[in-house]
């Protein structure tokens, strides 16, 4: 199946995100509220995670194994990351929009976060771990990277208890679209 990168990016830039149903039918979804990860001093994490960070058990990489991160994110039941959506992520990666932010322990992929970059917005699609704490360390290191690179928005789409521990908060659709519009005007690079 052929996908049009410009149309896909336009959909994300308008505040929508792609999901697939159980039959691999893709659809655009919006929400009355969005979950954001703070890029300021509201970002926090458990003290136990600080001990893990101090141990330097994980190395960080960007796009070292993009496909493995996509596969890791899709490896759950049920999943909304269908084969078609995996193809789209690969296309977005090849055209410079999709990224995997990864943690490694020796030569083993410990965890990762899959996201799309448009302007100074990082739109987090999914995350996973193979080694305990792998995705949590990825989250902390990704936020550090987004701060250094002067990103304005980290969209996590939907709230869950894991994200709440990092200070994630909910904004309504109007505020989200305003923040997204501003972030789209400022070019940033994750690398």
Characterization of this structure:
The protein has 7 helices and 9 strands; from the N terminus they run αβββαβααβββαβαβα. A hairpin with a 2-residue loop joins strand 5 and strand 6 (108-118). It is globular and about 45 Å long. The chain is of the alpha+beta class and 191 residues long. It has a 7-stranded mixed sheet with strand order 4-5-6-7-8-3-9, sandwiched between helices. Helix 3 (66-74) packs antiparallel against helix 4. It has a single domain (5-184), classed as Leucyl/phenylalanyl-tRNA-protein transferase, C-terminal domain (Aminopeptidase, 3-Layer(aba) Sandwich).
Compact summary:
The chain has a single domain (5-184), classed as 3-Layer(aba) Sandwich (Aminopeptidase).
Secondary structure topology:
Elements lengths: L4 H9 L3 E4 L5 E4 L3 E4 L10 H9 L3 E4 L3 H9 L8 H12 L3 E8 L2 E11 L2 E9 L4 H15 L4 E5 L3 H4 L4 E4 H12 L7
Fraction of helical residues: 25-40%
- Terminus-to-terminus distance: 30 Å
Structural class of the helix and strand makeup? alpha+beta
Give the number of DSSP strands.
9
CATH architecture: 3-Layer(aba) Sandwich
Q: What oligomeric state is this?
A: single chain
Gyration radius (Cα, Å) is: 16 Å
Output the helix-strand order. Answer: HEEEHEHHEEEHEHEH
Number of helices: 7
Low-confidence stretches: none
Which CATH top level class fits?
A: Alpha Beta
Strand content: 25-35%
Instruction: Tell me the strand order in the biggest sheet.
Output: 4-5-6-7-8-3-9
Major pleated sheet: 7 strands, mixed
CATH topological fold name: Aminopeptidase
CATH superfamily: Leucyl/phenylalanyl-tRNA-protein transferase, C-terminal domain
Mean pLDDT: 94
User: What overall form do the CA principal axes indicate?
Assistant: globular
How many domains would you count in the coordinates?
1
């Amino acid at each position: 199946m052929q996908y049009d990168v410009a149309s896909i990016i336009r959909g994300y830039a308008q505040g929508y995100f792609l999901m697939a149903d159980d039959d691999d039918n893709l659809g655009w979804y919006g929400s009355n509220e969005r979950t954001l990860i703070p890029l300021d001093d509201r970002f926090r994490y458990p003290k136990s995670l600080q001990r893990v960070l101090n141990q330097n058990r994980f190395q960080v990489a960007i796009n070292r194994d993009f496909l493995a991160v996509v596969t890791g994110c899709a490896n759950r039941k049920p999943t909304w990351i269908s084969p078609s959506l995996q193809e789209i992520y690969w296309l977005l990666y090849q055209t410079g929009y999709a990224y995997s932010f990864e943690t490694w322990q020796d030569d083993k992929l410990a965890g990762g976060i899959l996201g799309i970059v448009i302007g100074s917005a990082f739109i987090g699609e999914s995350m996973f771990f193979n080694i305990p704490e792998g995705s949590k360390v990825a989250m902390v290191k990704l936020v550090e990277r987004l701060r250094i690179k002067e990103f304005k928005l980290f969209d996590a789409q939907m709230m869950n208890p894991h994200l709440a521990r990092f200070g994630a908060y909910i904004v309504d659709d109007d505020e989200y679209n305003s923040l997204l519009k501003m972030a789209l005007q400022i070019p940033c690079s994750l690398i």
